[in-house]
Amino acid sequence: MIRRVVAFDLDNTLANSKSPITGEMAGLLDRLLARFQVCVISGGKFEQFEAQLIDHLNVASDKLGALHVMPTCGTRYYRFDVAAGAWQQVYAEDLPADKRAMIVAALNKGADALGFRETRLWGEQIEDRGSQVTFSALGQEAPVASKEAWDPEGAKKRKLRDFVAEEIPEFEVRVGGSTSIDVTKRGIDKAYGIKKLIALLGVKKEELIFVGDRLDEGGNDYPVKAMGVDCLKVSRWQDTALVIETILEVT
Question: At 77, which CATH number?
Fold first, then answer.
């Protein structure tokens, strides 16, 4: 089956967590966008995509039309309108305010019960992103090294995910980045976003390949794997660079 779409997670896939893509990755994405539809789907909000990805691309506006941006685990979707020269929101699966408050309360309860209240935070520990609520143990802007040291085996995140999922079973609760938990509407996850993308592009799931670092069960990339999309697991952006180089060589 010929591949037509290449989809990626962002943190620890295209870039270090909460960090900009490198010049090398920007160049590879430029080449990829000339030949494929490219999707980036991750837990961050759109402004995070701008800071990490969009602002560092040196890509002609016509190529940007092939880039599909899906923040907050696919609960939002943005396309670049070439004629208008601007990014446009296609949809947003926002949660009502009372539901977001319920999620925040469950995350706070879990953090207290499990002892995940850190004495030093870099930014907010719980962020309401409208269509998603995210818990980041060390804060949204914590240094990469500190985040990697906090939970290298992922046991803390899994404990918090399990605790919160039991508290609010009507919501989707998944492990996000190196220190984070993402909560969305039930059934609204990365698989939802990828299914929407497939429908909008008129492609088959066999024509899409997904690259991510959280493909284990409970991770926020896992729903894409579970829907039967071919997936490649990576752990850092350098792995993804090799994947892109290989795709470009063999297609």
Answer: 3.40.50.1000
Q: What is the mean pLDDT of the chain?
A: 94
What was the pLDDT predicted at 152? 92
Average pLDDT score over residue span 43-53? 94
Residue 177 in this model has a pLDDT that exceeds 90: no
Q: Edge-to-edge, what's the strand order for the sheet holding 133-136? A: 126-128, 133-136, 180-185, 171-175
Looking at the DSSP bridge assignments, the partners of residue 135 are 126, 181
The CATH number assigned to the domain holding 126 equals: 3.30.1240.20
Pairing of strands 86-92, 67-70: unpaired
Distance CA 32, CA 79 (A): 17
Compute the distance between CA of residue 195 and CA of residue 21 in angstroms, rounded to an integer.
26
- Structural domain boundaries enclosing 123: 97-185
Q: Is 219:225 a contact under the CB 8 Å cutoff?
A: no
Rounded to two decimals, what is the model's pTM? 0.88
How many CB atoms lie under 10 A from the CB of residue 207?
Answer: 17
**In 155-208, alpha helices (H):** 155-167, 190-201
- CA-based nearest residue to 94, from 135, 69, 145, 129: 129
Q: Could you tell me where the beta strands, DSSP code E, fall in the chain? A: 5-8, 37-41, 67-70, 76-81, 86-92, 126-128, 133-136, 171-175, 180-185, 208-212, 230-233
Work out the average pLDDT over 191-201: 95
Both structure tokens of 214: 């959280």
pLDDT for 62: 86
pLDDT of residue 139: 94
Nearest to 42 by CA among 63, 21, 26, 27: 21
Give the Cα separation of 118 and 235 in Å (integer): 26
